[in-house]
Sequence to fold (481 residues):
Amino acid sequence: MASTSFSVQTSSPPTTEEASNPSMALLSSSDQSPSLPRRSSPFLFSTLLITTCISTAAAMAFAFLLFSSPTSISNPSKLQVRPLTKLSHPVVLLISLDGFRYGYQFKAQTLNIHRLISNGTEAEPGLIPVFPSLTFPNHYSIVTGLYPAYHGIINNHFTDPTSGEVFSMSSHEPTWWLGEPLWETVVNHGLNAATFFWPGSEVKKGSWFCPSEFCHHYNGSVPFEQRVDTILNYFDLPNNQIPSLVTLYFEDPDHQGHQFGPDDPAITEAILHVDAMIGRLIAGLEKRGVFEDVTLILLGDHGMVSNCDKKAIFLDDLAPWIDVHSDWIQSLSPLLAIAPPSEFSAAQVVKKINEALSSGRVNNGEHMKMYLKEDLPERLHYSESYRIPAIIGIVDEGYKVEMNRKQSGKDCGGAHGYDNAYFSMRTIFVGHGPRFAKGRKVPAFENVEIYNLITSILNLEGAPNNGSLTFPDSVLLPCSA
Ligand SMILES: *[C@@H]1O[C@H](CO)[C@@H](O)[C@H](O)[C@H]1NC(C)=O
Ligand SMILES: *[C@@H]1O[C@H](CO)[C@@H](O)[C@H](O)[C@H]1NC(C)=O
Ligand SMILES: *[C@@H]1O[C@H](CO)[C@@H](O)[C@H](O)[C@H]1NC(C)=O
Ligand SMILES: [Zn+2]
Fold:
């Protein structure tokens, strides 16, 4: 993989014995909390902005009713924002652990992550990625609040059908990256923002120029310690220069997940390592007396599931029905994206492939279904972009698509990119800081909610997006009266 790329799935996954995952079922509808109404209008937003920082008994009672659980706080005085003691303005530190599947936090003694959980607010069970559950689409949804169809990063790599240009993970031209990422929102309001890696952070947008003191060009070889220490140094700046938003990205445990699958001891080791990095960060903030003032949001972009060669679907097997040319294929697995040339009817191609898959004569054919993008389930929000290829194949959990049997990978590894309703695709969310109740659990939610959550904490008016306007109130402590 190119050194300038973020980690994503490799096409040659390795060895581990296939884990039988007890949580294979699709979510029940009650588990899918993000079905709240989503409307974004600037008018509504400003109204909300005012109410979020007025503490009303009603709002508190509402939040308490919704989220009280055995672990909820019982002391009402703790139901209010804790005032800043050292910082002059709210600061959000947004940390991504790539591929941190929900539940990894129980694999080892992750003392530092658990410290954030026990004194913070956690999504239980987990944070729901957007579809496709891939690294770039999800990281950019987290910072824009938009589904990939609206923020433009519809895959880790794709071809623009009108210009023919190719997007890759090292494409930094602003035309690819739609929407308004958080760092742009922050600097548009005259505040500082800093990024130590995040997909899209090197792209110049609005008043965000990726300034060298606050923005780093992606280099996966930069040791994690160096990333943490650089960020800690920002807290030694004069108060008014301390960035309001800081992002921090770690490639692990995604890297190990692809190579060995989610149930390998290598994952446990990687988790202990990232937990130590969180510990280093907490210690540095404590040393500077700002740990309780800073809002730490720890999350991931997606989960991970084991996949093995015996779960492969080979496109060559479709030949008696249709010849799917390799140059029609924009991505193979687990998101099969096909853009046939214009002389072919996409509807016919879908029909032929589905005939083949359901014939009983294609190996694992029953584990994939092809759709015209406009016919995909609406909950995937994966059609409203000219960049999304006409034909999308949805693959069952843990299955993979390959051109032919000659493509030999290692036997078993891990993958993500599947339907975001699979529990295995979920990741972690923990918020710790003045606006987060200690020891609270909130229901699972989709990561498009995070943009509004962070602009609420920073008291900024955000750009229109796909998050719900009522979400921040349901999770955050109200500002003090
Ligand atoms: C949680 O916060 C309290 C202060 O509010 C502190 O005394 C306690 O040590 C913290 N617990 C952990 C596990 O960090
Ligand atoms: C990437 O980071 C490593 C470790 O800090 C450094 O040695 C290397 O020179 C960097 N590469 C580039 C292209 O900056
Ligand atoms: C998502 O947000 C964008 C920008 O506000 C809007 O154009 C689009 O209709 C929204 N889509 C959904 C499904 O809410
Ligand atoms: Zn990822």
In short: The pocket of zinc ion (ligand 4) is lined by residues 98-99, 135, 254, 301-302 (CB under 6 Å).
